[in-house]
């Protein structure tokens, strides 16, 4: 076993089901705003193994594939379930959905912060933590600024989709951006605290992507599959390459890497309430706030925090017993 090699979990029925559940949550995290699959991996004590297996899949295919199989199967189910469930919920109660999943992220935040337990917070680590906080906030502010230049009420999204994707016949600029965006989306799946859908919201791409998935839209705009392909290639590239980078970073500078991750986790929660997509929701309140949905949002935020934190405490207890 070389310097950076770690032992992967040997499955029994219970551990296989646990990994499949992790995969389901990771798949859900691709669609659902605010869920971080990697944070759940930390709570389940599978994160280091997951990062190692992803980063060494091509080098040690048989062993890593065997470990990743239940996670991959669960992820497929999570993506399908998340898409159909969340698409309807986001259309009906967008602010409440954001509140729920930001609550889930906040409740799980202590699990990420635990990775810095015992670390001396040097000026460098504090600076890295601050940079981590600022990155998602900067992305959200930029997205909000872009939206402010061309505001579009949520009720006009269907028109917006048609106008945007009809331009794909001339290779709309978004197709060229899809590859690097897909790469960053891949990174969100392995960096705790980050959410693919939260990033897409910050960029103002979330609703575009969700509403592009329909037979009618595909038949009218087949070039959108080039967009999907570019996102997919970038996603896989980000997932595999950055896993390798993180595995090495954790071996050589674990506390420094986690200082950035803790910052990213906190900053992502803040950015969910200030980005282009959520400003479109706020725009619908110009003639009066939707107090029913705001009330639902507050209640769901509390529920998300409590449920997520209880899971963190449960896993802490199990870890202490071991």
Structure notes:
This protein has 322 residues and is mainly α. The chain has one domain. It is built from 14 helices and no strands. The chain is globular and about 55 Å long.
Overall helicity = over 70%
H/E series: HHHHHHHHHHHHHH
Radius of gyration: 20 Å
Contiguous uncertain segments of 5+ residues? 153-171
Number of separate structural domains? 1
User: How many strands in all?
Assistant: 0
How widely separated are the two ends? 25 Å
- Average pLDDT number: 78
Features:
322 residues; mainly alpha; 14 helices; 77% helix; 0% strand; globular
How would you summarize this macromolecular structure in one to three sentences?
The protein is built from 14 helices and no strands.
Secondary structure layout plus pairing:
Elements lengths: L12 H19 L5 H7 L3 H9 L5 H32 L1 H20 L9 H27 L7 H10 L6 H16 L7 H8 L2 H7 L2 H6 L3 H48 L4 H8 L7 H31 L1
Helix pairs in contact: 1-2, 1-4, 2-5, 3-4, 3-12, 4-5, 5-12, 5-14, 6-9, 6-12, 6-13, 7-10, 8-9, 8-12
